[in-house]
Amino acid sequence: MRTSKEYREKILSMRPNVYMNGKLVGRDHPDFEPGIRTLALTYDLVDDPEYADLLTATSHLSGEKINRFTHMHQSTDDLLKKQEMTRKLCLVCGRCIQRCMGIDAMNGLSLVTKDIDNAKGTNYHERFLKYLRFFQDNDLVGNAAQSDVKGDRNLRPHQQADPDLYLHIVERREDGIVVRGAKAHNSIAAYADELIVIPTRALTKEEGDWAVAFAIQADAPGIKLISLPHNHRKRKHLKAPIEDYGTMHALTVFDNVFVPWDRVFMNGETEFAGQLASQFATYHRHSYTGCKPALSDIFLGATALMAEYNGIGKASHVRDKLAELITVGELVYGAGIAASVKGFKSASGTFAPDVVFTNVGRYHAGVNIYHEFETLADIAGGLAATLPYEEDFYSPDTKDDLEKYIMRKSDVCAENQHRAYRLVENLIASSTGAATGISGIHGGGSPVMEKIAIMSKYDIQARKNVVKYLAGIKD
Amino acid sequence: MRTSKEYREKILSMRPNVYMNGKLVGRDHPDFEPGIRTLALTYDLVDDPEYADLLTATSHLSGEKINRFTHMHQSTDDLLKKQEMTRKLCLVCGRCIQRCMGIDAMNGLSLVTKDIDNAKGTNYHERFLKYLRFFQDNDLVGNAAQSDVKGDRNLRPHQQADPDLYLHIVERREDGIVVRGAKAHNSIAAYADELIVIPTRALTKEEGDWAVAFAIQADAPGIKLISLPHNHRKRKHLKAPIEDYGTMHALTVFDNVFVPWDRVFMNGETEFAGQLASQFATYHRHSYTGCKPALSDIFLGATALMAEYNGIGKASHVRDKLAELITVGELVYGAGIAASVKGFKSASGTFAPDVVFTNVGRYHAGVNIYHEFETLADIAGGLAATLPYEEDFYSPDTKDDLEKYIMRKSDVCAENQHRAYRLVENLIASSTGAATGISGIHGGGSPVMEKIAIMSKYDIQARKNVVKYLAGIKD
Amino acid sequence: MRTSKEYREKILSMRPNVYMNGKLVGRDHPDFEPGIRTLALTYDLVDDPEYADLLTATSHLSGEKINRFTHMHQSTDDLLKKQEMTRKLCLVCGRCIQRCMGIDAMNGLSLVTKDIDNAKGTNYHERFLKYLRFFQDNDLVGNAAQSDVKGDRNLRPHQQADPDLYLHIVERREDGIVVRGAKAHNSIAAYADELIVIPTRALTKEEGDWAVAFAIQADAPGIKLISLPHNHRKRKHLKAPIEDYGTMHALTVFDNVFVPWDRVFMNGETEFAGQLASQFATYHRHSYTGCKPALSDIFLGATALMAEYNGIGKASHVRDKLAELITVGELVYGAGIAASVKGFKSASGTFAPDVVFTNVGRYHAGVNIYHEFETLADIAGGLAATLPYEEDFYSPDTKDDLEKYIMRKSDVCAENQHRAYRLVENLIASSTGAATGISGIHGGGSPVMEKIAIMSKYDIQARKNVVKYLAGIKD
Amino acid sequence: MRTSKEYREKILSMRPNVYMNGKLVGRDHPDFEPGIRTLALTYDLVDDPEYADLLTATSHLSGEKINRFTHMHQSTDDLLKKQEMTRKLCLVCGRCIQRCMGIDAMNGLSLVTKDIDNAKGTNYHERFLKYLRFFQDNDLVGNAAQSDVKGDRNLRPHQQADPDLYLHIVERREDGIVVRGAKAHNSIAAYADELIVIPTRALTKEEGDWAVAFAIQADAPGIKLISLPHNHRKRKHLKAPIEDYGTMHALTVFDNVFVPWDRVFMNGETEFAGQLASQFATYHRHSYTGCKPALSDIFLGATALMAEYNGIGKASHVRDKLAELITVGELVYGAGIAASVKGFKSASGTFAPDVVFTNVGRYHAGVNIYHEFETLADIAGGLAATLPYEEDFYSPDTKDDLEKYIMRKSDVCAENQHRAYRLVENLIASSTGAATGISGIHGGGSPVMEKIAIMSKYDIQARKNVVKYLAGIKD
Fold first, then answer.
1. Where is each HpaB/PvcC/4-BUDH N-terminal domain found (chains A, B, C, D) (predicted)?
2. What is the topology classification, in CATH, of domain B4-269?
3. Is pTM, for the whole model, over 0.80?
């Protein structure tokens, strides 16, 4: 397995193709550090006794010990461990651990390439396994590039004014394909080794050029990453883990990018585009049943801490709100466990979570995220929004005043009161915190997408039949 | 195992001690039939291939095949099967299957009697096992009598104006104890073999007389069952399973009832009263993670059927509401699965579900039940409330009019439209349906009780510590 | 103005055309009494100093003092008084006062007949005023018959398999029209003087026969009222106002009913059908901003009383829930006040409430009704559903037990505890209570209808323009 | 009336006592400009025909035309105009208009000083009127300084470890008083003429030193304003009103500040501290019934615009969500109208809104604000959170890519799509937007405070009496 040092060196050695704030920047730009540091955790903790069992697995290909973030799930137990690993790692960085997306896409490809082969006599799965072996051996970080920019939502891919609004094949050559388009909301793309590209939706027959899946190095020719960092404002005095970790999103532009055949995993099989899109979504939403409870843990802990510092830790309405935060997180986590238990072994041997339980879990997380913000804002009070600049707490002109007037419970020192409010500001009153709310809705698919997934799988007719039986209706 | 015929004969042979509508009635009174018929299902279906594996188990005492409703859970798998059995049986009778409560109380006793013995050197567990063997061998139906009438909720048991407002021991004799008081909301007590009596709450040292648990025949001397049936109005023409099954609740009065020692499982151990109360509650709330999803199935099916009959089955807002009903039921069911997976083996060997997952599941069911009523009422329309009497559909004066004007989709015959609305009336516009809503909140403990259970077990401090770490607070 | 005695005598003198439970019954059938008694309040209280100013008005036609339930609103003040009168009268009968519907339909006709005349040169308004004079002079009770049975909701009136599924004109004669069809959910029709019939929806050009409005005696030839009473179970011992009042709904069948021209107020003007339907709806929803707060008052009072009797009146969570009940009722009432203040004078001189405020008020009531049930059920506890029969409290066998075990706060006597629970049973655990929930959603138009009304009137473009201005978008 | 130029000159002439980011800054620091520009609107629009009638009033003192932001309300009509003015001005600056707080405090003082005088024979009201005349004649901007920093919320003011945690009188001199303490969340304090200081809560007898109210110049000796700007990130290319306006909050430190007697309006009258606190709160919450609907207008417009640009403007679920946004805003606005209509004339002649309607309105706004964020986030999609920097849209390296891939509906140009998303980013994905959510809960008092206000005024006993009457309970 790779060390975090090796991961970092590799990233720094890549061709500069990241654009930020109007400039081409190197991957050594300081805005990358919080993201790289987050990923580094997934390497550094493999030997930590608290995480080792969760963070490693045995490759079903090589039989070797590998990082679980490169593993194809083989069983319920693998899914339970992935879910638990996700929750625990998110608590270390105080946010999304980010590396899940790549392996969720890989598991989706594992399953669907086999199904395509079975149906069409192609050999995508063999190609995929070869690539997987490379991915595992090198312990790579993959970005999942799924969301097309989508243009007019009322039109299908092939109906758009500009065909590039969904990424598509523009040329099929002897040695591979050439693609054009863009993928949006690509977290970690700027510090990933590889981009795993898959379709964003079901496609119709005339959309063969859009039915494409492949893997490509993140700095391959023609790839441009227009990036936006989501890090907390650097602190000068109050250093803390919450500011150490962060993320960066990219709009990834594919400007006639060449992909060799051994990295192409779908090429025109439109009837499988929807399955691949939704299989990735299922794996990724299952990851959310791990990470969203971690976010609930943090909101719960912060709410409880602020209540304690404010002297209202035992108030009835506070305990009521804490209990509601718990139910949100644990219903989501419980749904993920149920999805693992009720999962299924696919033709490829890869194990997949149950679609309905996965989606009700992710759905519940999505429709409650803003309520979690609201609860913390409610208990923390207005100071979350009006906390003076950090510097004011250290300037001789204002330091004494601020240390005097930030005091709440008298046995908690001013610095800790300040630290607690600075964290709350990070969580709910910063642009990064605000973005967490939005990704809490949309990441991995918004609530409306989960409803669609649920409705497509749930046996409503069976329930109608029960009711007809109870009513004595025979027909 | 007993047959339903044997169960029925036994019930009919009992001493008349049921009072209803101002009279002492025999158990052959027609209002008992819907309840007895519901219980009969639990006997009749043991050989049905669809239910056999769920409805039977192997006794850990005798090694013999027994009805799962008399089984002590030994593993995650037992809990998963109990949960699934509950959901499936509720779909046969269209309501609560009722027999869960007795076995939930028995499992609670199994676990807690052992813990008492371990702590105090008593021998309750041995007594209990002997009783259990009798219970299993005779395939008995037990009512769980837990809720005291409780008097002034602001006062503790020993502070009440009348000490009998919580059931308590009034005499300890050489051969047993004598108890007095009453237990409320005792579903099935009127057609159960046995009453399993346990405390309703945690007790303080001065409340030794209230710390009592025992089993007693439902027609033992001194027991009076003041009963209220909850059955649907008998139909003359539109016979249907929804009206075949029903329930009956009792206020069970214990007027100086004698209980021999071999049926006494707690006698003054106040420090275990709370544990027994909550251990039963945990088992029973876990049963709710099976039965409430069944009720959601029925509401979902009824809503979908009414939408179809009204011609709006494909409307966007209808599909949206169906998806929300699904998420309610499956989040609850998923929490029950997670509780089974994350359960624990107690000192007694009996397996218990995880407290937090069980309670978040039951909680979510409780806070959504009225929303399920609302959704069905919304889609079914006002006719649920204004449907003319059944007789009007068969009187020559009005039959033609009603068959003409009840028509919706023209390919569904008038009788089926009528049957569907009659069922909806049963579900949401009848006194029995209304009571289902109330028991959906309170049965097994209301949402406020689940919050208390969650808060008592959840490690909030661990979440605070995560947040302190992230904020850089060391203390 | 008429006395309640005169009203009652008139009703009893009508031709028997009410069918119930398979039989033709006279209006002296005891099931009518609770409804008739409710209407009688609107006559009896006109001289009561507490109600006189609200319950009477000055006719703009005759200049005479009339019952406000026959008045055409002339001003904001009239609307405010109508709203307040409605709330106060509902508190006397503990439910819907019922007489609002007729006058809401009359106000709608007043406004729209004038608009039709202005557009088409007809003389409906003159006819209407003549009829109104008759209506006021005789102080009549009108039922508003609007909701057609509607058949397949996916088809328009003229597309239905049976054209009668929406009431329509089958013949135009020299002396009047002949209509056929049925109107559903006709509360009070069985004890009203007159039926005021109006369209249920907007119509298209080919639906001229369905564009019809008229007034007719409730016992006119060809009219059949298939009725369902919604009264509380008669009590033998615990007499109380809650059981004195009730209602009755009818499916009103029009079997080739002749209507003379001077009672016809729309005859084929399809372009005004939607306006008339929605103008009635607006008036009626405005009435809901009076009656629904009254229901909230009752749920609030009952919740507060049960909390007090249970000894938890001061508990933090109880006070929290009471405050939420208050916000529901007063937001609805406040919206009704705003609708009155921001109303408009129509061409006819009749004053109408603002559509948006009226509809947001009614909407908020509709989406909260089941939450009000839930709150009362939550605080009252399970006894609401398992309260033994009244008779058991008076039988020598069980009286002492029940009086002993119903005790809560020791300073409230058993009978009052019993009375309080009997009321709660009526409100939330009876078929009549359950129907109140359903009519809380659908009466006057369900939430989805209010959203449609709001969207049809609200100036969304103006808000888009504000946002474009703020964003600097010029186009 | 003052011009905006005069206001600005006055502000710039003040003694520098504002600290920001560790430094003492002049009021000409660029971070002040968005706030000053917002206030300037209240001067500039007095002659605009669209605003003149709302923005001016006739002084009841001088009979002269004055800015309504200096007016004592005399009638329902004044309150209705204040509410409408607030909503309309907030739509010009796209946020809080800010000047309401000072006049809300002044109205509160007008009412309560008279009540104190009536009760205690003091002459505060005369002093106040003199000060008011000065305030009106000079058309001043007042900041309302109410919220103390409050220390341990579990302790009363006089119990705090540091008595200064609530502002209090430290010395009473012949010529005035000296005060010490701090007031938090003081929006506009840094660019206001005057600070209007009032108590934050009810006080007990031993807290006479904390019962203090006064007015003071914002740059008086001893006053230190530690400030935090909440402005949108300056744009280089996409200039737009949304970035022109902003606000600044201050922690206002009173370090032994002298206040002459003629500016002291409460001095130890502890029994009126709660009334003054809540009377200001009532006026200020009534202002929220104007400004929060404006924020709803903006969220509604932005949601509708994004839906249109994304091509889903007519989708059923979108229209459903727009309708819900409308109901939130108009229920709040309607409650404000009702509060104005049902207000009362106080002893001072100043007119005050009804407490219950005001508070249910503010409450409803507070509990829905995060839901409004959620709705916009839901419809706008993830790009709100991942929009690249503005500069990237203008750099030659990335401009073409971004203009190509931001395209949605093809008839909306790339710049407008960009402008729309930039605005949405400002609203929900920026630190300033996030702070708006928090102030949406807490500004003017959080939902828990409104519930307390409601419960203190609502006649629950009257509702209990109704229910007792209905139940037949006499006692």
1. 3-266
2. Butyryl-CoA Dehydrogenase, subunit A; domain 2 (2.40.110)
3. yes
